[in-house]
Design brief:
Layout (H helix, E strand, L loop, with lengths): L1 H23 L4 H23 L5 H27 L2 H22 L6 H18 L4 H5 L7 H18 L9 H19 L11 H22 L5 H8 L2 H12 L6 H18 L3
Length: 280
Amino acid sequence: MAVLLALASAVVYGWSDFLGGLASRRASVFGVVALSQLAGWVALLALLPWLGGPATAADLGWGAVAGLLGATGLVIFFRALSGGVMSVVAPVTAVTAAAVPVLAGLLGGNRISPWAWAGILLALVAVVLVSAEGGLGQLRAARPASLTAPLIAGTAFGFFFVLLDRTSSGSGLTPLVTARLASVLLVVVVALSGRQSVRVGRAVLPLVLCSGVGDMTANALFLLATQQDGPLAITGVLASLYPVSTVVLAQVVLRERLVGAQLAGLGVAVTAVVLITLPG
């Protein structure tokens, strides 16, 4: 069940990022992030009567810190996408986000079977291949300075996964309440202090709202996956396969054509999932 929930979170993360990326082309990044996060918070409140649970102060604290890191990563990620080479930014961010929970899980005592190890390594390769819309040559030509923002964003996303994994299994989705409140407040404060616009036009409002609800749904699916006693090293890397969903949507909706590396990446991703789900 943990594997299925983590995979579902990757699918929803992918289409949420796709919608958020489309909205960020036409509106302020801060406005898109703030409003989408707020929309997700409202959706979460509607789910709490069924999926909430008693949360301790520690659960709420872990959620709040996770929310701050998630919002920081999201702003840096969207800014990097708008000002950098997308085929470099996306894979570096995703692989870093996957590597952090893998390392944290191993340090925390997760035991991984040889099949799962092979699947994790292939999943990391798949993320790079699927995101390489400009071909692998563009990744090799990337300058070290251009990798700083993606590495920071990926690290923030990775620790978001790690901190959510620290919450108690009985708390349900309740820790996400403080996570989302903290993220909204951080984005608004940073935007206002830097005199950045947080306005979003009516034309992109549906995209922003759907992106926010999708992001919250993905967060909820991942949190439920960790509460099913799924090893963090596995659930984290599965959730980080979200670029697969984004790339498929870009092909279907925007009629983008997949290069050879991306097609290979889709096949590698499927192989990775199969290996991870094999019994140890």
